[in-house]
């Protein structure tokens, strides 16, 4: 038997985007106060990031973080501050200039990882938390503390100049990008809505009429303050699977008296590896199927009657992703039948491909440059996955990669490493990215 969790078709593919293009030059009208405003907030932004870094919280448990964000937005003069959002109870949504229309959404994720930090920084996390019922160390080793600090600072600056902002701006502080820390999806029959998917399916975009969406992710191994923009697929989809194989245990010396679950599992692993090379249209994109966990057997002289495996599925193309999700249970079922065992496959669909709207991404680069950011259009996919993809399925979106490496850094520890470090000199560039997304020409051209 195969269990499929619901999967939504990409609105991005179904509804082509029309742009009103005016000439070949897209130079943005940069406000005179930009440089001074960013400079004035840099020191306090750095202090804020260090505080958030020292007090990380896991997905859907971000109680202190939520209060810090909400209090900051209210003090900054953001018109509406919504604390909690249906299936995302620790979210915070701030709205500037409600009712002006042509709304743009800016998103920062707020949750941390179940990782013990080993950076030795003065503000290193010592936090503990509960992850899927287990007591764990907690740290911001993905950089969400920087995401929050940059967006909060941008919100403060925009609120101070809101009369010059000719549109509605929605600041989305989203929990659980790294997943729900309360519930193990492999144990839940139907995982609860969480993270970006919860906000999107709970009507966030429709509520405020959000027409474009922007986000930033800090990245190791990119120079601090440099912004990289990708046209099209920027991050991979992420899905998971588990397979339970049931055979008949027998004496290891008399295998004909049973059915070998271990052998069936081994053949299944090999067969799964042939899906990408023989079924996926690799002219459209790439895909990976990895079995990361395989358990079988009890002792050396007993033929196993059961086996269990877990794996991950990644792709940078929606069509390839669909093929992999379709073929995995078919291949498992066919291999089981050939081996004389029974097999049950469960697919857990997590994040779609993160697709930057190509036209919007192309127009974003000159806006960023005009706003003082060293920006480049690049072909880059670090192989990771992000639930920003759910916003990008709904409206034209751009997810910007922001470098955080110190000058001269070589082979810097990557995001999710216990030694991942952010150079604070990158933070002002992130604020400028948000300001360019709101005040620049690119997203205003979306019709």
UniProtKB/TrEMBL annotation:
Identify the domain of life: Bacteria
* Signal peptide, first to last residue: 1-27
Q: Signal among the record's keywords?
A: yes
Q: Which cofactor does it need?
A: Mn(2+)
The UniProt keywords, alphabetically, are:
Hydrolase, Manganese, Metal-binding, Signal
Record-listed Mn(2+) binding positions = 142, 144, 178, 217, 416
The record's free-text note on cofactor binding: The Mn(2+) ion enhances activity.
Any single biological process term in GO: diaminopimelate biosynthetic process
UniProt-recorded name of the protein: Amidohydrolase
Q: Which organism is it from?
A: Sutterella parvirubra YIT 11816
